[in-house]
Design goal:
The protein has 544 residues and is α+β, with helices and mostly antiparallel strands. It contains seven helices and 32 strands. It has three domains: 144 residues, Alpha Horseshoe (Serine Threonine Protein Phosphatase 5, Tetratricopeptide repeat); 234 residues, Neuraminidase; 94 residues, Immunoglobulin-like, CATH 2.60.40. Helix 1 runs antiparallel to helix 2, helix 2 runs antiparallel to helix 3 and helix 3 runs antiparallel to helix 4. The longest helix has 39 residues.
């Protein structure tokens, strides 16, 4: 009897153990499948706990370690955590890696490229170069992966030179009033830096929907600076924010025109909204096909006089990837055919985030080409008198880093740059920061604004007038401005310590030119300047 009881107990223990193993295997398969699903949707945060469960059961599995390293390297603030997992995964690699097989215990050769990425991000350029070189051993020279690895090796060789040529800066988080635990990005400001417009994925977005990776859809917010402090941001307008994605691109110097990015069923387009007489934003209108084409247009900048638009597009006929294009506003108010900025600016890689200074000829932009520290770096170029852009200059370290450095908004005097980044003091995802460019020369700009009146009629603003500004020292046309049709105000940004000629005309009259001096100050300042028009005589018609 006792023997029988022992046999029964043993049988039950074996059965229980078998059941446990069976259910454990089911759970392992389920977690693996879920991890792969989250990775396919780029929802790396959700994949990590699934992979952690797998690694707890099988810590030496190279495939699990590779996938964990892949997830960490795709989360900007957690990239460094990828290193130990990728190192372990690199001990067991195979050529025919079975990506979706639960039985796969090895890692793919690409683990060496990811190790190169992590070390590059950590500024360990020699180690990174060695890993990229190791990856080359498994690739065919004609493959895109081979070319990309060779390029990363060149970047690692070039990076120390850029770091040695560093400049002095200080960086300040705009604080919890502006930033949240979610992503904030794409800041753009009016010329006086008192109105900030930005994009956020925070909770409470219009429509409340989330993307496959678990983030809220993007909305545009606005904040005003009062007594040197930012007020609580508000959604910019129900005319602009919808249930879908909207992202801020740029705002005109006078704060009256806003350009935004919208995703139209997988195609990125640029839209414009204008403030009406009550100060409300109108429903955005898609720009003409020569700008918002069937390709992806992602970012833009508009000149201070609102007559030049430079934008990024991946349309065919360029130099590769995203290129920068320019369009000018025609007399009828429409935009001209877009012209590629050429191969001095554009490369076989991506150019993004253009920002045109108020002078109308200094262009800042981000590029993955040229000589970078890796990813996007910030460059600037100047349009010369012969119409050719100067060779782009890298702004150097630490403005540029081994991460993507893109979508900067510079102040008119080039002493401050507003941008988004993930840093140690971030409140969650991407935050908006201001960078003080301490060692760069100041442009000494001034914001000039005012209304235009006829002589003796200073109670009725003139709105249908063209204002031409000429630098008397160089004879160069600095811009052509028009008063805002709703407010009557013109806004221009000019260099300090200069004398300018102001020439005004409308469809009927030409007016007495004005000489205008912009005094020298120690920093950017704003000056109110009403223009009084004295008619010289009627303009001749085109038929006369």
């Amino acid at each position: 009897m006792r023997t029988a009881i022992i046999i029964v107990c043993a049988f039950l223990l074996i059965a229980k153990s078998t059941d446990a193993q069976f259910f454990s295997k089911i759970q392992l398969k389920h977690n693996f499948k879920e991890a792969r699903r989250f990775i396919s949707f780029k929802n790396y945060e959700e994949a990590i706990p699934k992979l952690a469960y797998l690694l707890k059961k099988d810590s030496l599995n190279a495939n699990y370690n590779y996938l964990m390293g892949l997830c960490y390297i795709r989360i900007p603030k957690l990239k460094a955590k990828a290193l130990p997992f990728l190192l372990l995964a690199s001990k067991s690699v195979v050529e025919n890696w079975q990506e979706y097989s639960f039985k796969e215990r090895n890692a793919p050769y690409k683990v060496f490229f990811l190790l190169g990425e992590v070390n590059h991000m950590l500024y360990k350029f020699d180690q990174a170069e060695n890993y990229f070189a190791k990856y080359l051993e498994y690739l065919k020279p004609e493959s895109n992966e081979y070319k990309e690895s060779k390029r990363m090796m060149d970047i690692c060789k070039n990076a120390p030179l850029l770091i040695n040529d560093s400049i002095e800066i200080s960086i300040e988080n705009l604080g919890p009033v502006i930033n949240s635990e979610y992503d904030e990005h794409s800041p753009t400001l009016t010329s006086d830096e008192n109105t900030l417009i930005f994009t956020s994925r925070r909770k409470g977005s219009t429509g409340g929907m989330k993307t496959d990776d678990g983030r809220y859809f993007e909305d545009i917010y606005v904040s005003k600076k009062v007594n040197d402090h930012w007020e609580i941001p508000e959604k910019i307008s129900p005319n602009i924010n919808t249930d879908m994605h909207e992202a801020s691109i740029c705002v005109s110097a006078d704060g009256q025109e806003l350009y935004i990015y919208k995703d139209d069923f997988g195609i990125g387009n640029i839209y414009a909204s204008i403030k009406d007489s009550l100060g409300n934003w109108t429903k955005p209108v898609k720009l003409e096909p020569q700008i918002s084409s069937s390709a992806n247009e992602t970012h833009a900048t508009i000149s201070a006089d609102k007559n030049i638009l430079i934008f990024s597009s991946d349309r065919s006929g360029g130099y590769g990837g995203k290129d920068l294009y320019m369009s000018v506003r025609l007399p009828n108010g429409e935009w001209s055919y877009a012209k590629n900025l050429g191969n001095i600016i554009n490369t076989p890689y991506d150019e993004e985030g253009p920002f045109l200074l108020p002078d109308g000829y200094t262009l800042y932009f981000s590029s993955k080409g040229h000589h970078t520290l890796g990813g996007y770096d910030l460059f600037y170029s100047e349009l010369k008198e012969d119409g050719i852009w100067s060779e782009p200059k890298n702004l150097g370290y630490p403005i540029n880093s081994t991460e993507d450095d893109v979508y900067y908004h510079l102040s008119a005097d080039e002493k401050r740059a507003y941008f988004s980044s993930i840093r140690d003091d971030s409140y969650g995802g991407k935050d908006i920061y201001v960078m003080n460019l301490l060692s760069l020369p100041e442009r000494s700009a001034a914001v000039i604004k005012g209304k235009v009146f006829f002589e003796g009629k200073d109670s009725i603003p003139v709105k249908d007038v063209l204002i031409k500004v000429i630098d008397n020292k160089t004879g160069k046309l600095m811009g052509q401005y028009k008063p805002n049709k709703e407010t009557g105000y013109y806004v221009m940004i000019l260099k300090q310590n200069r004398e300018y000629s102001i020439i005004c005309e409308n469809e009927q009259y030409e007016f007495e030119p004005k000489i205008f001096n912009v005094p020298q100050h120690s920093s950017l300042y704003e000056m109110e300047k009403p223009l009084i028009l004295e008619p010289l005589g009627k303009l001749k018609s085109k038929t006369e």
